[in-house]
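User: Can you help me understand a structure? I only have the sequence.
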Amino acid sequence: MNAEASGRRHRIRVLLICCLSLFIVGIDITAVNVALPSIGRDLDAGVSGLQWTVDAYTVVLASLLMLGGSTGDRLGRRRVFVVGLVVFSVASLLCSVAPSVGLLVAFRALQAVGGAMLNPVAMSIIANTFTDPRERAQAVGVWGAGFGISMALGPIVGGTLVDAIGWRAIFWLNLPVGLAAIALTLRYVPESRAPRPRRLDPVGQLLVIVLLASLTFGIIEGVDAAFVASAAALLGLLRYEPRREEPLVDLRFFRSIPFASSIAICVAAFSAFGGFLFLNTLYLQQQRGLSPLQAGLVTVPVAVMIVAASPLSGRIVGRRGPRLPLVIAGIGLIVGCAMLTGIDAATSLGWLIAAYVVLGLGFGLVNAPITNAAVSGMPRAQAGVAAAVATTSRQVGQTLGVAVVGAIVASGDGSSAWWTLAACGAVVLVLAFVATAARARESARRTAAALNPEALAA
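Assistant: Let's start by predicting it. Here is the structure, written out as tokens:
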């Protein structure tokens, strides 16, 4: 009994250490958004510079997530996790002393290199530590709640630091947490590797980086050549990846309607959320004249609803399937964004908070069903890779949301930006029915059989 209790304490300790990495990544997202107006004033950055401050991080993170996970499997998860913490912490320090927006963007990209070694590797550590399916599900729930809490604290902590010290202080916050996580990981987390790690796919990795970076650059800067490069990279992926025995992105996954729909829902939902964070921060501080702390406090209802709705969504998916939470999520995103289309400096605070509650509810209900849909029917051996693609699509969505609405704002049409985000909610609503139809379930079964014919024969 003592050995069992000791083992459980050890597993919980490992889980909490892994949650520290998610905490600094989550709090960094919302804290940086609160600081954007201050960064713009201090570094003389326009809308484009502020877009890159956010998107340099999300583009690089999206590009390297799958590589980070496979590197941990190959070289050792604890080793890669510690390297990721070191890189993220050093990059945070560099961000705090950046003398120009160009260098801040570069250091944000370096932060993302570290971040790409944290989340997927931490999830692998958790999966290998919690071998009991029930305990593992609970651990993943704690992991998700930790992310919600960090995003809820981000606006408050970020706003307080920006008001009291300045925007550079939000990056100092990562240093003590990062150093503590490094020390605790070296002390308590055992090393582990995959018995047969996936082969590296450098060509596929390069094509993914070119695709995401050139697409984002084209949207933000309006350069036609960037769209040509993006299209060429996409065609390269479509031709090259099917020929690899172990591709970076297995395109056969997209034959499953639930999987393909979940990826599209990820991109749409996180585009709406990323675009909301960017637009709302500029509105509250530049148009309404709120301080960073006041803006953070006003936005808290969004994070609170995400924290409350996420576990509720998981329970609904377990009992009734993914359709109901996805439908409510789509409606919540549409209505929440539509309520913000006509806002100006005179809009009542009650109206804003009501819109934030509705939008937060919609976004909070998305995560559990899209993760479920992504791995629905997939063979166990491919479920991890499918989930990694879904995680990557979340970052892609956030990147595109900031890039697109920022470009619209730069053209002087703020109302259209909110309607664009509402349209993302409409995509979620339509695909909620597509992803959960009988035809979709049958396509998932056929895809699973094609990916793992041995299991079907058995």
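Now, to help you interpret it: The CA atoms of residues 344 and 388 lie 40 Å apart. Residues 252-458 form a domain with the Growth Hormone; Chain: A; fold (CATH 1.20.1250.20). Let me know which part you'd like to focus on.
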